[in-house]
C-alpha cells in the first residue's frame, strides 16, 4: 500500500503532486512547440463537423462537469461556438433538443458514470456526434463515443478527483485551440502565444505545489469551520465550484462555490466574522471587479483567503491570508489556481481526521443512476 502511494500518506496527495507530470502526459504528442499546429488524433475524422458545428453540448457529472464549464469559456472564447454545459442526469430526463448538427462532448474520468453514459446514448439516438474525454482506456464511455481523446492522467485512486480534472482541462484547452485555429477565430499569433504558455504550465503547477506548507498552516486556522464560500469570476468561477466540491467531499464541511458578482444577490447575507471565504483573484480581465467583491466581504468582516497572482500588491492589504500562484494567461489559469484549493481541502480533511481517499457515502465511479 505504502509503495503504491509512493511515500505519500494518501493517494489524493500523491495524485495532487503528480499533476506537473500528468498535465505533461495529457499534452504529449499533441503540443509540439516546433510545429505550427496542434495534434489530436481523435478529432481528425470529425474535423469538418467540428469546424461547422453550430452548437456544442457538454455532458458530465461532478468534477468532470466543472471541467466542462471551463471548456465552455474556452470554446466560446477561442472558437466562437456556442456551448451548453449539462449535468448528464438532468439532460437525459428533460427531453432535450438535440440535432444531427450538434456535437456532444462527454467528459468522464472513469468512463463508467451511469448518467453520462445514458446521456450519450440519448444524444446518439438523435444523431449527434459524440466526442469523449475519458481517462480510463477502454471504458464504457470511451467505447460508446464516436471519437475522443484520452486524458492520460494515469490511474486515479483517491475518490476526490484532482489530477483527472487538470488533465481534462488540458485536453479541452487543446481542443478549443484546435477548433479556434481551424475555424479562423484564433489568429496564428494568439495560437502561438497560447502554445508557448501552455508549455510552461507543468512548471507553474510545480511552483504552486511548493505552497503546500503554507496551505497546511491556513488549514490549521480553518479546520473547525462549519461553512465556506468559494468565489471566482470568469475562468475562475468553475475553479470556485471545484474548490467547494473538494472540501465538501473529503472534509464534510459545507461549502458553496459562487460567481463572485452573484454574492450581492443573496449569499452576502451569510457573511460574518465566522465565514471563511476563499476568493480566487488572479490578475485577469475581472481582477478589478473581484477586488471590489473582496472589499464588500471585508466590510462585513468575512475572513478572506485570497488566491492571487504572484507579486499582487493590492489584495495582501485586504485579505487575512494570501496564496500567491505563478501568473499565466487568463484562459489557462484554472490549471494553476485549482492546485492550492485541492491542497487546502486535503489538509483540512486530514486535520479533521477524515478518510481522505475514501470519504463516506462516495464511490469512485457512480455506476448507478
Ligand atoms: C469528484 O471529486 C467526484 N468524486 C465526482 O464528482 C466525480 O467527478 C463524478 O462522479 C464524475 O465521475 P467521472 O468523471 O468518472 O464520470
UniProtKB/TrEMBL annotation:
Residues the record marks as active site:
364 (for fru-6p isomerization activity)
The source's domain of life comes to Bacteria
EC number, as in UniProt: 2.6.1.16
Principal location: cytoplasm
Keyword annotations for this protein, in alphabetical order, are: Aminotransferase, Cytoplasm, Glutamine amidotransferase, Repeat, Transferase
Q: Please indicate if the UniProt record lists Amino-acid biosynthesis as a keyword.
A: no
Which reactions are catalysed by this chain?
A: D-fructose 6-phosphate + L-glutamine = D-glucosamine 6-phosphate + L-glutamate
Q: Where in the cell is it found?
A: Cytoplasm
Q: What class of enzyme is it?
A: transferase
Note whether Metal-binding occurs among the keywords.
no
Q: Boundaries of each SIS domain copy?
A: 46-185, 218-359
Query: What are the protein's GO molecular function terms?
Result: glutamine-fructose-6-phosphate transaminase (isomerizing) activity
Function, as annotated, reads: Catalyzes the first step in hexosamine metabolism, converting fructose-6P into glucosamine-6P using glutamine as a nitrogen source.
Q: How does it assemble?
A: Homodimer.
Protein name from the UniProt record: Glutamine--fructose-6-phosphate aminotransferase [isomerizing]
Portion of the full sequence shown: 243 to 611 of 611
Amino acid at each position: 500500500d505504502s509503495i503504491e502511494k509512493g511515500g505519500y500518506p494518501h493517494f489524493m496527495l500523491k495524485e495532487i503532486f503528480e499533476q506537473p507530470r500528468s498535465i505533461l502526459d495529457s499534452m504529449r504528442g499533441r503540443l509540439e512547440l516546433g510545429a505550427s499546429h496542434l495534434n489530436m488524433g481523435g478529432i481528425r475524422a470529425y474535423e469538418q463537423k467540428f469546424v461547422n458545428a453550430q452548437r456544442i453540448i457538454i455532458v458530465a457529472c461532478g468534477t468532470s462537469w466543472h471541467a466542462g464549464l471551463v471548456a465552455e469559456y474556452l470554446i466560446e472564447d477561442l472558437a466562437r461556438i456556442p456551448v451548453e454545459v449539462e449535468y448528464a442526469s438532468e439532460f437525459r430526463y428533460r427531453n432535450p433538443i438535440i440535432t444531427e448538427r450538434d456535437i456532444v462532448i462527454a467528459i468522464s474520468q472513469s468512463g463508467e458514470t451511469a448518467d453520462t453514459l445514458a446521456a450519450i446514448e440519448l444524444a446518439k439516438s438523435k444523431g449527434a456526434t459524440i466526442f469523449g474525454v475519458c481517462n480510463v482506456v477502454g471504458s464504457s464511455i470511451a467505447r460508446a463515443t464516436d471519437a475522443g481523446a484520452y486524458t492520460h492522467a494515469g490511474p486515479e485512486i483517491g475518490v476526490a478527483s484532482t489530477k483527472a480534472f487538470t488533465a481534462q482541462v488540458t485536453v479541452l484547452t487543446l481542443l478549443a485551440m484546435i477548433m479556434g485555429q481551424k475555424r479562423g477565430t484564433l489568429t496564428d499569433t494568439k495560437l502561438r502565444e497560447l502554445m508557448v504558455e501552455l508549455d510552461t504550465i507543468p512548471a507553474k503547477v510545480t511552483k504552486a505545489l511548493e505552497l503546500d506548507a503554507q496551505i497546511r498552516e491556513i488549514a490549521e486556522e480553518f479546520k473547525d469551520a462549519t461553512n465556506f464560500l468559494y468565489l471566482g469570476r470568469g475562468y475562475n468561477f468553475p475553479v470556485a465550484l471545484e474548490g467547494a466540491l473538494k472540501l465538501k467531499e473529503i472534509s464534510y464541511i459545507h461549502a458553496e462555490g459562487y460567481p463572485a458578482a452573484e454574492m450581492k444577490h443573496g449569499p452576502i447575507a451569510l457573511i460574518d466574522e465566522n465565514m471563511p471565504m476563499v476568493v480566487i483573484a488572479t490578475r485577469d480581465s475581472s481582477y478589478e471587479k473581484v477586488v471590489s467583491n473582496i472589499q464588500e466581504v471585508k466590510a462585513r468582516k468575512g475572513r478572506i483567503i485570497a488566491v492571487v497572482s504572484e507579486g499582487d500588491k493590492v489584495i495582501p492589504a485586504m485579505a487575512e491570508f494570501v496564496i500567491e500562484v505563478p501568473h499565466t494567461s487568463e484562459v489557462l489559469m484554472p490549471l494553476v489556481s485549482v492546485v492550492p484549493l485541492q491542497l487546502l481541502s486535503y489538509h483540512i480533511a486530514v486535520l479533521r481526521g477524515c478518510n481522505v481517499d475514501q470519504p463516506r457515502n462516495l464511490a469512485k465511479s457512480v455506476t448507478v443512476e
